[in-house]
């Protein structure tokens, strides 16, 4: 029966991603030709993961204090003495550049526990605003006010509480568990996947965050599949292979690749190449017309060629830029909350709880762009309040409009799960592979 055939298929109808890139003008690199066999074990998870303060607290105890997490870009603290603060739940970590490299310390005064620094900045030492105890930027103690009154303090053993710190790809990662496995082991093959895109050679062109009225996992999961495009972003359907996406998972990271410039298998009409091009560029009906797609050319090839020409000036002539690397949405997830995009897409997301609430999160989007000559200074962080629209951040361009559509759903998903009278949400076998993989790892971490 047709229904049972459809239900037992591994993939949707239509061309697979690997078949699609086999027809590209400039072939995709080896990393995009990889496919993992993984399909994920968890077919459903407890609704309570998204709605209870008890589960949030479990994460605050078992996950965040033990896992590697991206704290900032190296370029945000370029000079010795520059520091930033990385906050997660009630934890706060100072990430500072010292003469011996980047270091991280808990942002807590060892006298009576005041937060040591209130803001990011530049410092020769950290001085507590309460009674003036101070620490050198490497974390060693510098001064104890009225030291005659603290016979119990051994200055050699009164440094700031250390946090592990390491870098990859221009990102700084921290881990509060000083006995944790090295970052390189945690990353596994991820740096190898990104080697051809050298993320360390990109600069922060934009950095926008918004407080979201939903759990951090619920938020990031909306950016881990193309399954929602059919109803959330229907304007894209003429030129997005939502259901043709490839989903993979290896070790602590997963990947989705959604092809663009190819129509969705969901639509019942056949868009011409111009309609595909207009869809993928999100041309507004009352906006200026797009350039014409020449006879004999596909929208995908035209998109790729335009993007390639734009990049040439920056990356030089000897870098091979395939159609896939400039056309497709290649979105990786490093457990638990870091989402760098592959290829020449500029996007990097990070999601985390906002404050100590299970129903609020901070979603951030970085644009990391290649540059020529001297590295431009990183963009200032632009934080949008929970009721501010993404379109208040024009630096995100078209993406702000797409986020607006996602943001329309998310508080309603939160309200829905809070009211749900069933125990579990269910995941698609293939298209929600990344969610299954994430929750499988999360289960291991919080157990
Ligand atoms: S709490 Fe920091 S010096 Fe007293
Ligand atoms: Fe979306």
Global structural class: alpha+beta
Instruction: Tell me the strand order in the biggest sheet.
Output: 2-11-10-5-4-3-6
Beta-strand percentage range: 15-25%
Helix content: 25-40%
What's the overall geometry?
Answer: globular
Largest sheet composition? 7 strands, antiparallel
Small-molecule binders here are:
FE2/S2 (inorganic) cluster, fe (ii) ion
Count of domains: 2
Mean pLDDT: 93
- First CA to last CA: what distance? 42 Å
CATH class membership of the largest domain? Alpha Beta
Quaternary structure type: single chain
SS elements, strand count? 20
Number of helices: 13
Rg over CA atoms, rounded to whole Å, is 24 Å
CATH superfamily of the largest domain: Naphthalene 1,2-dioxygenase Alpha Subunit, Chain A, domain 1
Reported CATH architecture of the largest domain: Alpha-Beta Complex
Layout of helices and strands, plus pairs?
Blueprint: H1 2-8, H2 17-22, E1 44-46, H3 48-51, H4 53-63, E2 69-73, E3 82-88, E4 91-98, E5 101-106, E6 121-122, E7 125-127, E8 134-136, E9 141-143, E10 162-168, E11 171-175, H5 183-187, H6 190-194, E12 202-212, H7 216-221, H8 229-232, E13 246-250, E14 253-258, H9 273-280, H10 299-315, H11 323-327, E15 329-334, E16 338-340, E17 347-353, E18 361-370, E19 382-384, H12 399-419, E20 424-426, H13 433-446
Parallel strand pairs: 12-19
Antiparallel strand pairs: 1-20, 2-11, 3-4, 3-6, 4-5, 5-10, 7-8, 8-9, 10-11, 12-18, 13-14, 14-15, 16-17, 17-18
Helix pairs in contact: 9-10
């Amino acid at each position: 029966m047709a229904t049972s055939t459809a239900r037992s298929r591994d993939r949707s109808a239509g061309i697979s991603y690997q078949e699609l890139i086999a027809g590209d003008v400039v072939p995709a690199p080896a990393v995009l030709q990889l496919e993992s066999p993984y399909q994920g074990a968890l077919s459903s998870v407890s609704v309570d993961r998204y709605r209870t303060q008890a589960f949030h607290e479990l994460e605050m105890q078992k996950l965040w204090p033990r896992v590697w997490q991206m704290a900032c870009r190296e370029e945000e603290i370029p000079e010795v003495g520059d520091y930033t603060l990385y906050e997660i739940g009630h934890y706060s970590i100072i990430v500072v550049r010292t003469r011996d490299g980047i270091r991280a310390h808990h942002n807590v005064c060892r006298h009576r526990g005041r937060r040591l620094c209130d803001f990011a900045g530049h410092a020769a030492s950290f001085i507590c605003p309460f009674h003036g105890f101070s620490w050198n930027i490497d974390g060693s103690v510098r001064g104890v006010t009225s030291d005659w009154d603290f016979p119990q303090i051994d200055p050699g053993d009164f440094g700031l509480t250390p946090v592990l710190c390491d870098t990859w790809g221009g990102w700084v990662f921290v881990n509060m568990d000083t006995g944790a496995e090295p970052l390189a082991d945690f990353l596994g093959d991820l740096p190898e996947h990104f080697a051809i895109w050298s993320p360390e050679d990109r600069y922060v062109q934009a950095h926008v965050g918004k407080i979201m009225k939903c759990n951090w996992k619920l938020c990031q999961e909306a950016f881990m599949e193309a399954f929602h495009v059919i109803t959330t972003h229907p304007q894209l359907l003429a030129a997005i292979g939502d259901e043709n996406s490839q989903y993979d998972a290896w070790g602590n990271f997963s990947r989705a690749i959604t092809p663009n410039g190819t129509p969705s298998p969901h639509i019942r009409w056949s868009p011409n190449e111009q309609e595909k091009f207009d869809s993928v560029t999100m041309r507004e009906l009352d906006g200026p017309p797009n350039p014409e797609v020449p006879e004999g050319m596909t929208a995908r090839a035209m998109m790729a060629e335009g993007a390639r020409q734009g990049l040439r000036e920056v990356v030089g002539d000897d870098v091979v830029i395939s159609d896939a690397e400039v056309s497709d949405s290649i979105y990786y997830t490093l457990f638990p909350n870091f989402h760098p995009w592959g290829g020449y897409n500029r996007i990097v997301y990070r999601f985390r709880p906002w404050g100590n609430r299970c129903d609020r999160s901070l979603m951030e989007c970085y644009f990391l762009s290649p540059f020529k000559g001297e590295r431009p200074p990183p963009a200032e962080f632009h934080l949008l309040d929970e009721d501010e629209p993404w379109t208040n951040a024009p630096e995100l361009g078209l993406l702000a409009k797409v986020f607006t559509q996602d943001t329309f759903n998310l508080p309603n998903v939160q309200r829905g799960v809070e009211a749900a009278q069933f125990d579990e949400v269910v995941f698609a076998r293939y298209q929600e592979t990344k969610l299954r993989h994430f929750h499988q790892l999360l289960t291991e971490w919080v157990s």
